[in-house]
Specification:
The protein is α/β, with parallel strands linked by helices and about 160 residues long. It has a single domain, classed as Rossmann fold (3-Layer(aba) Sandwich), CATH 3.40.50. The chain is built from nine helices and seven strands, in the order E-H-E-E-H-H-E-H-H-E-H-H-E-H-E-H. It has a five-stranded parallel beta sheet. Helix 6 packs across helix 7. The two termini are about 20 Å apart.
Length: about 160
């Protein structure tokens, strides 16, 4: 199957065409299950569904991690967990949790990130082009990290930026 390639915004890849690797954190995957009466939540949910659909159709590549799979498998809502597991199976790669990732995550925790957020981010670095989250507090803190090698976005804002 031939993948459709999108132009990455010039703000971070200078007109290079490539098949983007996208990491959606646990907040993103759970967003469609949140209260849809809030307009922002509804729009973010639709953006996430669109991104997942484009990954499923081969336009972009979804990557996940052992950390994400652990969170999904240990979620208290079993029916939701099963759905999230199926979505995560669309990933072309599941990034293993290594000692290097643990150490990088510890560094991020020292900057104020929560443990799982730090592990997600450290897992995505070097493997994903884009890290998507709906967690505003995490996003704000992560933007302050020095030498971060993955670009962070809210899924709605990112989708508005990359779609023609």
């Amino acid at each position: 199957m031939e993948a459709h390639l999108y132009s990455c915004p010039t703000s971070f890849h200078s007109d290079i065409l490539f098949k983007m690797k996208i990491y959606l954190d646990n907040c993103c995957l759970n967003r469609p299950f949140d209260d849809q009466s809030n307009p922002r939540i509804h729009l973010e949910s639709e953006a996430i569904k669109t991104i997942i659909s484009l990954c499923e159709n081969g336009h972009w590549t979804m990557v996940s991690s052992d950390v994400l799979m652990f969170e999904i498998n240990n979620a208290p809502d079993i029916p939701r967990s099963k759905i999230l597991y199926l979505i995560a199976q669309l990933s072309s790669e599941i990034i293993p949790l290594t000692e290097s990732i643990r150490q990088r995550a510890k560094t991020y925790e020292n900057y104020g990130l929560q443990a799982f957020d730090a592990l997600h981010l450290a897992s995505a670095e070097g493997e994903a082009d884009i890290f998507l989250t709906t967690d505003d507090k995490f996003h704000k803190k992560a933007q302050q990290l020095p030498r971060l090698t993955v670009k962070l976005f809210n899924p709605l804002q990112w989708l508005e930026e990359v779609l023609p």
